[in-house]
Amino acid sequence: MGRTIQNEYVPDYVSPPGETLIETLEALGMSQAALAERTGRAKKTINEIVKGKAPITPKISLELENVLGVPAEFWNSRESQYREYLARKDEQERFEKHLKWLDLIPVRTMVKFGWIREFKDKVQQLRELLRFFQISSPDQWEKYARSYTDQVVFRKSEAFETNRSAVVAWLRRGEIQAKNVECAPYDQSKFREVLRLIRGLTNESPEIFCSKMVDYASAAGVAVVFVQELPKTRISAATRWLTPSKALIQLSLLYKRNDHFWFSFFHEAGHVLLHGKKDFFINNPKNYEETGAGQEKKEMEANTFAATSLIPAAAFKALTRSGAPSRDTVLQFASELGIAPGIIVGRLQREGIIPWSHYNDLKVSFRWAGS
C-alpha cells in the first residue's frame, strides 16, 4: 500500500538498492568480492551498499553499469527513491511529534472556506498546512509568524492576544489571493484618481463594486482582495507592500455593515498613499473609532484621510452646523455627495452627533456568498 501526495503516489516501503544489487549478482553468478575487485572498490564498501548503509553514488553507478551491464540511470533512480523514502519516513516520525501544532490553527474553518484540503490523516493535514504557509516544518512556525506580527506598525487589535495563528493564516490567504491579481506598477497619482472612481461605487451592491474595485485599483498598482475573517481575528483590514511596485489592501466583512466597510477601505488606502512601503498595518474597528491621543499618528492620518475622502470636511461641517440632522436631511445630503447614506450615518454616530441607535436602517449589511 501507499499514499498520494499532491497527485503523486508514495509507496509505504522502498527496498534498499542493495537488495537489487544482490539479485543481479546472483543472476550473474558473481560474488561481492568479485564485484569489489572488478570495480576497484573495497569489499567493505560493496557490503555496506548491499546492506543499505552506504549510497550508490553517481560514480559507482557508472562502475556498476560497466561491470554488470545495468544502466547507471537505473541505479541512480533506485538510490534516489530509497533515500527519498528514508527522508519521508524520518519526516513522518518528526511530524507525528508536532501534531499539537494543528490545535493552534483554525483548520476546520480554513477547510470550510476552501483554503486548504481536508485529510483524515493528521500528518497529511499537517503537511497541507505547511504547503499553505510555505514552510517546511512546524519548527519554522514561530519565526514565520513573527515575520508578520513583528512588522505590524499598529497593534491595537486584540487579535494578537487571542489567536495570533488565525491572524497569520488570514494574512497569508490575502497574499495567496493577491498573487492572482495582475497589477500595473504602483502609480500614486493614478491611485488617487482611482479612489474617486471607487468612492462612486458606495451605492452599488457587492456584486458590482467588488470586481470594479479590484480592476480600478490594480490599474494603479494596488491589489485589493476580500478575505473572509477567521474566528477570533477581529480584523477589518490590513495593508502592506508585497513588492516595491505592488501594494496589498486586504478586507474582511467584520461587522458586515457598509459604513465600516467603506471607511476601512479608504483608511487602508490612506496608508498606501501617506506612509512608507516598509510599514505593515493590521486594523480592527477600534482603530477607526478612536480619535484621541491614544492613537498612533499614522492611524490618525489614515482616519482623517478616510473621513475627508468620503465626506469633505466643509460639507460635513455644514451638515452638522445646526446639530443632529434629520433622517431626510441625511438622505438628501448623501444624494448630493453621491455616496451611500449609511456612510454618513456611521460618521455621525462615531463623532457622537447622533446616538448609535439612530438611522441604522440606512446602513446596508453585507454577507459572504453562500453564508
TrEMBL record:
<dbReference type="InterPro" id="IPR001387">
    <property type="entry name" value="Cro/C1-type_HTH"/>
</dbReference>
<dbReference type="Pfam" id="PF06114">
    <property type="entry name" value="Peptidase_M78"/>
</dbReference>
<dbReference type="InterPro" id="IPR052345">
    <property type="entry name" value="Rad_response_metalloprotease"/>
</dbReference>
<comment type="similarity">
    <text>Belongs to the short-chain fatty acyl-CoA assimilation regulator (ScfR) family.</text>
</comment>
<feature type="domain" description="HTH cro/C1-type">
    <location>
        <begin position="21"/>
        <end position="75"/>
    </location>
</feature>
<dbReference type="GO" id="GO:0003677">
    <property type="term" value="F:DNA binding"/>
</dbReference>
<dbReference type="InterPro" id="IPR010982">
    <property type="entry name" value="Lambda_DNA-bd_dom_sf"/>
</dbReference>
<dbReference type="InterPro" id="IPR010359">
    <property type="entry name" value="IrrE_HExxH"/>
</dbReference>
<protein>
    <submittedName>
        <fullName>Plasmid maintenance system antidote protein, XRE family</fullName>
    </submittedName>
</protein>
<dbReference type="Pfam" id="PF01381">
    <property type="entry name" value="HTH_3"/>
</dbReference>
